[in-house]
Amino acid sequence: MSSRLYRAVGLMSGTSMDGIDAALIETDGEGHIRFLDFASRPYDDAFRADLRAAVLKGAAAMERQMDDDLRAVSRRLTILHAEVAGTIAKGADVVGFHGHTIGHRPDRGWTWQIGDGALLAQLLRIEVVDDFRGPDVAAGGQGAPLLPAYHRALGSGLERPFGVLNLGGVGNLTWIGGGDEIVAFDTGPANALIDDWLHEQRGLSFDENGALASAGDVHEEVLQSMLDLPWFDQAPPKSLDRQDFGIEPVRALNAEDGAATLTAFTAETVRLALSHVSSRPQRLLVTGGGRHNPVLMRMITERTGIAAEPVEAAGWRGDSMEAEGFAWFAVRKLRGLPTSFPEISGPRQPVVGGTLHVPS
Ligand SMILES: Nc1ncnc2c1ncn2[C@@H]1O[C@H](COP(=O)(O)OP(=O)(O)OP(=O)(O)O)[C@@H](O)[C@H]1O
Ligand SMILES: CC(=O)N[C@H]1[C@@H]2OC[C@@H](O2)[C@@H](O)[C@@H]1O[C@H](C)C(=O)O
To answer: Which residues lie in coiled coils (predicted)?
Structure first.
Protein backbone atom coordinates (compact mmCIF):
# COMPACT_ATOMS: atom_id res chain seq x y z
CA MET A 1 0.00 0.00 0.00
CA SER A 2 1.48 3.36 -0.93
CA SER A 3 1.76 6.05 1.75
CA ARG A 4 0.17 9.47 1.67
CA LEU A 5 2.17 12.09 -0.21
CA TYR A 6 2.78 15.45 1.47
CA ARG A 7 3.81 18.80 0.04
CA ALA A 8 6.56 19.90 2.40
CA VAL A 9 8.75 22.98 2.64
CA GLY A 10 12.21 22.76 4.19
CA LEU A 11 14.13 25.78 5.46
CA MET A 12 17.86 25.92 6.06
CA SER A 13 20.15 28.62 7.36
CA GLY A 14 23.56 27.01 7.20
CA THR A 15 26.76 27.57 9.13
CA SER A 16 28.24 29.72 6.35
CA MET A 17 25.65 32.38 7.26
CA ASP A 18 25.13 33.22 3.58
CA GLY A 19 21.34 33.27 3.78
CA ILE A 20 18.16 31.19 3.80
CA ASP A 21 17.39 28.32 1.43
CA ALA A 22 13.83 27.05 1.01
CA ALA A 23 12.74 23.98 -0.95
CA LEU A 24 9.31 22.55 -1.71
CA ILE A 25 9.11 18.81 -2.31
CA GLU A 26 6.42 16.17 -2.63
CA THR A 27 7.29 13.21 -0.44
CA ASP A 28 6.09 10.33 1.70
CA GLY A 29 9.16 10.81 3.95
CA GLU A 30 10.59 7.62 2.47
CA GLY A 31 11.61 6.84 -1.11
CA HIS A 32 9.15 9.10 -2.93
CA ILE A 33 10.94 12.45 -3.36
CA ARG A 34 9.82 14.87 -6.07
CA PHE A 35 11.41 18.31 -6.23
CA LEU A 36 8.89 21.10 -6.86
CA ASP A 37 10.39 24.51 -6.10
CA PHE A 38 13.29 26.40 -4.55
CA ALA A 39 13.87 29.92 -3.24
CA SER A 40 16.78 31.53 -1.47
CA ARG A 41 17.65 34.90 -0.08
CA PRO A 42 21.05 36.16 1.08
CA TYR A 43 21.30 37.94 4.43
CA ASP A 44 22.15 41.61 4.26
CA ASP A 45 25.43 42.67 5.84
CA ALA A 46 23.78 44.11 8.96
CA PHE A 47 21.88 40.93 9.78
CA ARG A 48 24.90 38.75 8.95
CA ALA A 49 26.93 40.77 11.47
CA ASP A 50 24.23 40.18 14.12
CA LEU A 51 24.20 36.46 13.32
CA ARG A 52 28.00 36.33 13.47
CA ALA A 53 27.85 37.90 16.96
CA ALA A 54 25.23 35.35 18.02
CA VAL A 55 27.43 32.48 16.76
CA LEU A 56 30.43 33.78 18.70
CA LYS A 57 28.28 34.03 21.83
CA GLY A 58 26.84 30.53 21.31
CA ALA A 59 30.26 28.98 20.72
CA ALA A 60 31.62 30.47 23.94
CA ALA A 61 28.60 29.49 26.07
CA MET A 62 28.73 26.79 28.72
CA GLU A 63 24.97 26.39 28.49
CA ARG A 64 22.09 27.63 26.35
CA GLN A 65 20.84 30.90 27.74
CA MET A 66 18.83 33.39 25.69
CA ASP A 67 19.36 37.10 26.31
CA ASP A 68 17.62 40.12 24.76
CA ASP A 69 20.06 40.35 21.83
CA LEU A 70 19.68 36.66 20.99
CA ARG A 71 15.89 36.89 21.29
CA ALA A 72 15.90 39.80 18.83
CA VAL A 73 18.10 37.91 16.34
CA SER A 74 15.94 34.81 16.69
CA ARG A 75 12.75 36.77 16.00
CA ARG A 76 14.25 38.57 12.99
CA LEU A 77 15.58 35.24 11.67
CA THR A 78 12.10 33.72 11.97
CA ILE A 79 10.44 36.61 10.14
CA LEU A 80 13.01 36.39 7.31
CA HIS A 81 12.32 32.64 7.06
CA ALA A 82 8.58 33.34 6.83
CA GLU A 83 9.20 35.77 3.97
CA VAL A 84 11.31 33.32 1.98
CA ALA A 85 9.04 30.33 2.71
CA GLY A 86 6.00 32.41 1.80
CA THR A 87 7.19 32.59 -1.81
CA ILE A 88 6.90 28.80 -2.33
CA ALA A 89 4.74 27.46 0.53
CA LYS A 90 1.27 27.86 -1.00
CA GLY A 91 -0.67 24.65 -0.42
CA ALA A 92 2.09 23.08 1.69
CA ASP A 93 1.09 20.62 4.43
CA VAL A 94 4.10 21.17 6.66
CA VAL A 95 7.32 23.16 7.04
CA GLY A 96 10.60 21.75 8.38
CA PHE A 97 12.50 24.57 10.09
CA HIS A 98 16.15 24.00 10.92
CA GLY A 99 16.80 27.40 12.49
CA HIS A 100 20.37 28.67 12.80
CA THR A 101 23.01 26.81 14.80
CA ILE A 102 24.74 29.25 17.12
CA GLY A 103 26.46 26.60 19.22
CA HIS A 104 26.99 22.86 18.99
CA ARG A 105 28.29 21.08 22.10
CA PRO A 106 27.10 17.48 22.19
CA ASP A 107 29.98 16.86 24.64
CA ARG A 108 28.19 19.23 27.04
CA GLY A 109 24.83 17.63 26.24
CA TRP A 110 23.42 20.35 24.00
CA THR A 111 23.12 21.75 20.52
CA TRP A 112 21.61 25.18 20.02
CA GLN A 113 19.52 26.36 17.09
CA ILE A 114 17.78 29.74 17.28
CA GLY A 115 14.49 30.52 15.50
CA ASP A 116 10.93 30.38 16.81
CA GLY A 117 8.88 27.51 15.34
CA ALA A 118 5.65 28.61 17.03
CA LEU A 119 5.96 32.11 15.58
CA LEU A 120 6.78 30.71 12.12
CA ALA A 121 3.64 28.52 12.24
CA GLN A 122 1.55 31.61 13.12
CA LEU A 123 3.12 33.72 10.37
CA LEU A 124 2.70 31.05 7.66
CA ARG A 125 -0.54 29.50 8.95
CA ILE A 126 1.06 26.10 8.29
CA GLU A 127 2.24 23.38 10.70
CA VAL A 128 5.95 23.72 11.45
CA VAL A 129 8.40 21.13 12.76
CA ASP A 130 11.62 22.39 14.37
CA ASP A 131 14.30 21.11 16.81
CA PHE A 132 15.54 18.06 14.91
CA ARG A 133 18.95 17.97 16.56
CA GLY A 134 18.15 18.37 20.27
CA PRO A 135 16.34 15.02 20.71
CA ASP A 136 19.24 13.22 19.02
CA VAL A 137 21.74 14.72 21.50
CA ALA A 138 19.36 13.87 24.36
CA ALA A 139 19.50 10.24 23.18
CA GLY A 140 23.31 10.24 23.26
CA GLY A 141 23.83 11.21 19.61
CA GLN A 142 26.00 13.91 18.08
CA GLY A 143 22.96 15.84 16.82
CA ALA A 144 24.73 16.07 13.45
CA PRO A 145 25.07 15.29 10.66
CA LEU A 146 21.44 14.36 9.94
CA LEU A 147 21.32 14.72 6.14
CA PRO A 148 23.07 11.39 5.44
CA ALA A 149 19.71 9.65 5.94
CA TYR A 150 18.33 11.81 3.12
CA HIS A 151 21.39 11.01 0.97
CA ARG A 152 20.64 7.31 1.54
CA ALA A 153 17.03 7.79 0.41
CA LEU A 154 18.05 9.81 -2.66
CA GLY A 155 20.81 7.41 -3.65
CA SER A 156 18.80 4.19 -3.65
CA GLY A 157 19.51 3.69 -7.38
CA LEU A 158 23.26 4.44 -7.36
CA GLU A 159 26.05 1.91 -7.62
CA ARG A 160 27.81 1.28 -4.28
CA PRO A 161 30.00 2.34 -2.61
CA PHE A 162 29.43 6.04 -3.24
CA GLY A 163 30.28 9.13 -1.24
CA VAL A 164 28.38 12.36 -0.76
CA LEU A 165 30.46 15.28 0.40
CA ASN A 166 28.72 18.40 1.71
CA LEU A 167 30.94 21.47 1.46
CA GLY A 168 29.02 24.02 3.53
CA GLY A 169 30.45 26.19 6.29
CA VAL A 170 31.36 22.87 7.92
CA GLY A 171 31.91 19.75 5.78
CA ASN A 172 30.43 16.30 6.14
CA LEU A 173 30.92 12.99 4.34
CA THR A 174 28.38 10.24 3.78
CA TRP A 175 29.66 6.86 2.58
CA ILE A 176 27.12 4.27 1.50
CA GLY A 177 28.21 0.72 0.81
CA GLY A 178 26.49 -2.52 -0.11
CA GLY A 179 23.32 -3.37 1.82
CA ASP A 180 22.91 0.33 2.60
CA GLU A 181 25.77 0.20 5.12
CA ILE A 182 26.47 3.82 6.04
CA VAL A 183 29.29 5.81 7.61
CA ALA A 184 28.76 9.53 8.07
CA PHE A 185 30.41 12.31 10.04
CA ASP A 186 31.67 15.90 9.91
CA THR A 187 35.00 16.18 8.12
CA GLY A 188 36.24 19.62 9.23
CA PRO A 189 35.60 23.20 8.25
CA ALA A 190 34.78 23.24 4.54
CA ASN A 191 34.29 26.91 3.63
CA ALA A 192 34.16 28.43 7.13
CA LEU A 193 37.86 29.26 7.42
CA ILE A 194 38.16 30.40 3.80
CA ASP A 195 35.15 32.68 4.38
CA ASP A 196 36.63 34.01 7.65
CA TRP A 197 39.95 34.70 5.91
CA LEU A 198 38.28 36.58 3.06
CA HIS A 199 36.23 38.56 5.57
CA GLU A 200 39.35 39.54 7.48
CA GLN A 201 41.69 40.14 4.54
CA ARG A 202 39.35 41.59 1.94
CA GLY A 203 36.06 42.44 3.64
CA LEU A 204 34.37 39.83 1.40
CA SER A 205 32.11 36.99 2.49
CA PHE A 206 33.74 34.26 0.34
CA ASP A 207 36.50 33.54 -2.20
CA GLU A 208 34.44 33.66 -5.38
CA ASN A 209 35.50 30.85 -7.72
CA GLY A 210 38.65 30.43 -5.64
CA ALA A 211 40.16 33.58 -7.23
CA LEU A 212 42.34 34.51 -4.26
CA ALA A 213 43.45 30.92 -3.58
CA SER A 214 44.39 30.40 -7.24
CA ALA A 215 46.83 33.33 -6.98
CA GLY A 216 48.62 31.86 -3.96
CA ASP A 217 50.90 28.98 -2.99
CA VAL A 218 50.08 26.27 -0.47
CA HIS A 219 52.45 26.29 2.51
CA GLU A 220 52.73 22.56 3.16
CA GLU A 221 54.41 22.92 6.57
CA VAL A 222 51.60 25.18 7.84
CA LEU A 223 49.09 22.77 6.33
CA GLN A 224 50.68 19.78 8.11
CA SER A 225 50.58 21.61 11.44
CA MET A 226 46.86 22.24 10.96
CA LEU A 227 46.24 18.56 10.26
CA ASP A 228 48.16 17.36 13.26
CA LEU A 229 45.13 17.07 15.55
CA PRO A 230 43.68 13.96 17.24
CA TRP A 231 40.23 14.97 15.97
CA PHE A 232 41.05 13.72 12.48
CA ASP A 233 41.94 10.23 13.80
CA GLN A 234 38.85 9.98 15.97
CA ALA A 235 36.41 7.35 14.71
CA PRO A 236 32.85 8.41 13.78
CA PRO A 237 30.27 9.38 14.93
CA LYS A 238 31.64 12.88 15.31
CA SER A 239 30.50 16.41 14.61
CA LEU A 240 31.83 19.95 14.83
CA ASP A 241 30.91 23.42 15.90
CA ARG A 242 31.63 26.03 13.20
CA GLN A 243 34.04 27.75 15.61
CA ASP A 244 36.07 24.62 16.49
CA PHE A 245 38.78 25.62 14.01
CA GLY A 246 40.29 29.05 13.40
CA ILE A 247 42.46 30.95 10.92
CA GLU A 248 45.33 31.64 13.35
CA PRO A 249 47.72 29.11 11.75
CA VAL A 250 47.81 31.09 8.47
CA ARG A 251 47.98 34.59 10.02
CA ALA A 252 51.64 35.03 9.10
CA LEU A 253 50.96 34.33 5.39
CA ASN A 254 49.97 36.84 2.74
CA ALA A 255 46.32 36.93 1.65
CA GLU A 256 46.80 34.74 -1.44
CA ASP A 257 48.95 32.08 0.25
CA GLY A 258 46.59 32.02 3.25
CA ALA A 259 43.62 31.38 0.96
CA ALA A 260 45.50 28.67 -0.96
CA THR A 261 46.62 26.96 2.26
CA LEU A 262 43.15 27.04 3.82
CA THR A 263 41.63 25.66 0.61
CA ALA A 264 44.20 22.84 0.61
CA PHE A 265 43.39 22.24 4.29
CA THR A 266 39.76 21.54 3.40
CA ALA A 267 40.88 19.15 0.65
CA GLU A 268 43.20 17.34 3.08
CA THR A 269 40.41 16.94 5.64
CA VAL A 270 38.46 15.08 2.96
CA ARG A 271 41.44 12.81 2.27
CA LEU A 272 41.73 12.05 5.99
CA ALA A 273 37.96 11.46 6.23
CA LEU A 274 38.21 8.76 3.58
CA SER A 275 40.53 6.81 5.89
CA HIS A 276 37.47 6.11 8.09
CA VAL A 277 35.55 4.17 5.42
CA SER A 278 36.14 0.53 4.55
CA SER A 279 36.40 0.92 0.77
CA ARG A 280 37.06 3.77 -1.60
CA PRO A 281 33.85 5.21 -3.03
CA GLN A 282 33.36 4.77 -6.77
CA ARG A 283 32.11 8.34 -6.95
CA LEU A 284 32.41 11.41 -4.76
CA LEU A 285 29.29 13.53 -5.26
CA VAL A 286 29.75 17.02 -3.91
CA THR A 287 26.94 19.18 -2.61
CA GLY A 288 26.87 22.57 -0.86
CA GLY A 289 28.33 25.89 -1.93
CA GLY A 290 31.93 24.64 -2.02
CA ARG A 291 31.22 22.71 -5.20
CA HIS A 292 31.10 26.10 -6.97
CA ASN A 293 34.77 26.68 -6.03
CA PRO A 294 36.85 25.15 -8.86
CA VAL A 295 40.13 25.48 -6.94
CA LEU A 296 38.71 23.53 -4.00
CA MET A 297 37.19 20.87 -6.30
CA ARG A 298 40.53 20.45 -8.12
CA MET A 299 42.47 20.15 -4.85
CA ILE A 300 40.03 17.52 -3.53
CA THR A 301 40.40 15.51 -6.73
CA GLU A 302 44.21 15.75 -6.63
CA ARG A 303 44.62 15.03 -2.93
CA THR A 304 42.07 12.17 -2.66
CA GLY A 305 42.61 10.64 -6.10
CA ILE A 306 38.83 10.46 -6.58
CA ALA A 307 37.15 12.81 -9.07
CA ALA A 308 35.01 15.31 -7.16
CA GLU A 309 31.77 15.67 -9.12
CA PRO A 310 28.92 18.07 -8.34
CA VAL A 311 25.80 16.17 -7.20
CA GLU A 312 24.05 17.45 -10.32
CA ALA A 313 25.95 14.65 -12.12
CA ALA A 314 23.60 12.24 -10.29
CA GLY A 315 20.53 14.39 -11.02
CA TRP A 316 20.42 15.90 -7.52
CA ARG A 317 20.25 19.60 -6.62
CA GLY A 318 23.23 20.83 -4.61
CA ASP A 319 21.85 24.23 -3.70
CA SER A 320 18.57 22.95 -2.26
CA MET A 321 19.72 19.60 -0.82
CA GLU A 322 19.77 20.64 2.86
CA ALA A 323 16.44 22.47 2.65
CA GLU A 324 14.92 19.44 0.89
CA GLY A 325 16.26 17.23 3.65
CA PHE A 326 14.51 19.18 6.38
CA ALA A 327 11.25 19.06 4.40
CA TRP A 328 11.66 15.26 4.26
CA PHE A 329 12.44 15.08 7.99
CA ALA A 330 9.31 17.14 8.79
CA VAL A 331 7.17 14.58 6.97
CA ARG A 332 8.93 11.76 8.80
CA LYS A 333 8.07 13.48 12.08
CA LEU A 334 4.39 13.71 11.04
CA ARG A 335 4.48 10.00 10.18
CA GLY A 336 6.26 9.01 13.41
CA LEU A 337 9.32 7.78 11.50
CA PRO A 338 12.86 8.23 12.86
CA THR A 339 14.81 11.30 11.79
CA SER A 340 18.16 10.23 13.22
CA PHE A 341 19.90 6.90 13.48
CA PRO A 342 22.52 5.09 15.59
CA GLU A 343 24.60 4.33 12.47
CA ILE A 344 24.74 8.04 11.51
CA SER A 345 24.79 10.55 14.39
CA GLY A 346 25.04 7.84 17.04
CA PRO A 347 21.96 7.99 19.29
CA ARG A 348 21.36 4.87 21.42
CA GLN A 349 18.28 4.04 19.32
CA PRO A 350 16.54 5.59 16.28
CA VAL A 351 15.02 8.93 17.28
CA VAL A 352 11.88 10.63 16.01
CA GLY A 353 13.21 14.17 16.36
CA GLY A 354 11.40 17.45 15.85
CA THR A 355 8.76 19.45 17.71
CA LEU A 356 5.44 20.10 15.98
CA HIS A 357 3.90 23.59 16.15
CA VAL A 358 0.29 23.92 14.99
CA PRO A 359 -0.99 27.42 14.18
CA SER A 360 -3.78 28.44 16.56
N1 LIG B 1 31.20 30.59 -6.65
C2 LIG B 1 31.72 30.24 -5.47
N3 LIG B 1 33.05 30.24 -5.31
C4 LIG B 1 33.62 29.91 -4.13
N5 LIG B 1 32.91 29.55 -3.03
C6 LIG B 1 31.59 29.53 -3.14
C7 LIG B 1 30.91 29.86 -4.35
N8 LIG B 1 29.58 29.74 -4.14
C9 LIG B 1 29.43 29.35 -2.84
N10 LIG B 1 30.64 29.23 -2.24
C11 LIG B 1 30.92 28.87 -0.84
O12 LIG B 1 29.83 28.14 -0.32
C13 LIG B 1 29.41 28.71 0.92
C14 LIG B 1 27.94 28.46 1.11
O15 LIG B 1 27.73 27.07 1.10
P16 LIG B 1 26.39 26.43 1.63
O17 LIG B 1 25.25 27.29 1.24
O18 LIG B 1 26.40 25.01 1.22
O19 LIG B 1 26.66 26.52 3.16
P20 LIG B 1 25.69 26.30 4.37
O21 LIG B 1 24.46 25.60 3.92
O22 LIG B 1 25.55 27.61 5.03
O23 LIG B 1 26.58 25.39 5.31
P24 LIG B 1 26.34 24.05 6.18
O25 LIG B 1 26.24 22.91 5.23
O26 LIG B 1 27.59 24.03 6.96
O27 LIG B 1 25.12 24.27 6.97
C28 LIG B 1 29.79 30.17 0.84
O29 LIG B 1 29.97 30.73 2.11
C30 LIG B 1 31.09 30.09 0.04
O31 LIG B 1 32.17 29.84 0.91
C1 LIG C 1 25.22 21.47 14.31
C2 LIG C 1 24.99 21.79 12.89
O3 LIG C 1 24.19 22.66 12.56
N4 LIG C 1 25.68 21.07 12.00
C5 LIG C 1 25.56 21.26 10.55
C6 LIG C 1 26.81 21.93 10.02
O7 LIG C 1 26.72 22.12 8.61
C8 LIG C 1 27.31 20.98 7.96
C9 LIG C 1 27.69 20.08 9.10
O10 LIG C 1 27.90 21.04 10.15
C11 LIG C 1 26.53 19.16 9.53
O12 LIG C 1 26.96 18.46 10.68
C13 LIG C 1 25.26 19.93 9.93
O14 LIG C 1 24.37 20.17 8.90
C15 LIG C 1 23.90 19.22 7.98
C16 LIG C 1 22.77 19.83 7.23
C17 LIG C 1 23.46 17.89 8.59
O18 LIG C 1 22.98 17.84 9.70
O19 LIG C 1 23.53 16.90 7.87
So the answer is: none
